[in-house]
Amino acid sequence: MARLLLALWGGWVMLCPFSASAWGFFAHERINGLAVNLLPPGLQALFRSQQTYLIRHATDPDKRRYAVKEEGPRHYIDLDRYGTYPFDSLPREWKQAVARFTEDTLQQHGIVPWWMEVMTGRLIKAFREKDIPRILQNAAEIGHYLSDAHVPLHTCRNHNGQFSGQRGIHGLWESRIPELLAVGKWNFWIGQAAFIEDMPAYWWLRLLESSLAADSVLRIEKELDARTDPSEKYAYEERKGKLVRQYSTRYTKQYDSLMNGMVERRMRLSVQSVASIWFTCWVLAGQPDLPSSPQQHEDPEQREMIRQLDRQWRLKRVNGSEHL
Ligand SMILES: [Zn+2]
Question: Which of 63, 74, 236, 261 is surrounded by the fewest CB atoms within 10 Å?
Answer without folding.
Answer: 261
